[in-house]
Amino acid sequence: MSQPSPAARSQVWVWWVCGLLLLASTINYMDRQTLANTSVQITREFDLNEKEYGSLETAFGLAFAVGASLFGFISDRTNVRWLYPVVLLLWSAMGFATGLVETYAGLLWCRLLLGLFEAGHWPCALRTTQRLLPPDKRALGNSVLQSGTAIGAMVTPLIIKNMVDEHVRGSWRPAFQIVAAVGVGWVVLWLLSIRSGDLRTIPSTVTPSDPQEPATGSSSLTAQEHVNGAGRSFFSLLPTRRFLVLIIVVIAINLCWHQFRVWMMKFLEQGRNYSRNESLDVNFWFNVMTDIGCLSAGLGTAALFRAGWTVHGARCTVFGICSFLVALGGLIPWLPSGPGLICVLMAVGIGALGLFPCYYALSQELSTAHQGKITGLLGTIAWVFPSLWHYGFGAWVDRNKSYDIGMMLASLLPVLAWVAMCLLWPKNVDEEVG
């Protein structure tokens, strides 16, 4: 007997699955952020300079770039019900192993493999929201998904603050292992919640006239999306204006986000002389703001659509508001430690993660059949640039002993992405040109 399609499942179930995606994002970022939150202690114990620390993030990022395309292609050809828990268990294993390493080489390999397997999260997650939600609700669904990254980044400083004694060598190790162990529970919940037919892939050979297509697809996919997914090859999508805009957007918002994710603790402790606990507190509240901003972006987009705005107009407006909040970070070089700096960082936090739900929703419009490959290729592009940036930025800090310029430049990039989105994104498929 065939399994019911997602169309036959209740809205409660749909949003429960979105909640599981939130939890997966939370675990993803907890595994990732444990290093950033213990970076000062680890660099001291392993006797690393800033360039070597930056190399850890470069290894993670370049491996993530490879994994994004790899798992993107796999997710279009494999049942996500099984692929998703496999990659989550693999990245959790790498996080656990990080707590065991004794050498810089071992640490480097763990970060590299963690990045490779963590990359599988996004193709799987975005294929899931594309299959479950109609276009006008995807920004909201993606904001729920993305808000998990903020929760993970928010919870991690609390774990570090309460578990890690900065004066005790090796006290950071159990934190990596405890965070990694959480992934096993998620796998159980996922397999109990998802049936084999719920997230079925759409063959690229299906045509719009295929009478079986409506029976196998989710009601959340529009007729135009079935046409886009079936009628175009993956490579024919790459020279379009839409894909060009997505490249600009994904580079800008990821470089901005990862600059603050990777370097915030070092900027606060070594650049502004905050204590470790003060820096963890600021990092915690920064990530509270990112979660507020992320969920607000999804809710705001949905509210504007209900008020009569076009879907694209609502997305551009919300993206623009978030971009200008982040641009306040351009003031960082002129701000000493104190309330002014903290307020600017909180504004950056609100905007930085709110950019992503709109971007994800745009990427889901290109193709149904090739969603995994699109997500993967854009993920590869997104991670190559920040990864090389971390290496160069670490060398810059070693020479100049300042984090300010990097924080300022990263804060201004989303405004450029917003301009590209408003001016270049075509109003309909017919306007696309190679």
Characterize the largest beta sheet: strand count, sense, and whether it forms a barrel: none
Superfamily at the CATH H level? MFS general substrate transporter like domains
Instruction: Tell me the CATH architecture.
Output: Up-down Bundle
Average pLDDT, all residues: 84
The counted number of beta strands is: 0
What distance separates the N and C termini? 45 Å
Tally of individual helices:
17
Give the SSE map:
Blueprint: H1 11-37, H2 39-45, H3 50-75, H4 80-98, H5 104-118, H6 121-132, H7 135-163, H8 173-193, H9 213-216, H10 223-231, H11 234-237, H12 241-271, H13 276-306, H14 311-327, H15 339-363, H16 371-400, H17 404-424
Helix pairs in contact: 1-4, 1-6, 1-7, 1-8, 3-5, 3-6, 3-16, 4-5, 4-6, 4-8, 6-7, 6-16, 7-13, 7-15, 12-13, 12-15, 12-16, 12-17, 13-14, 13-15, 14-15, 14-17
Tell me briefly what this model is:
The protein is 76% helix and 0% strand.
Sum up the structure in keywords.
434 residues; 17 helices; single chain; mainly alpha; 76% helix
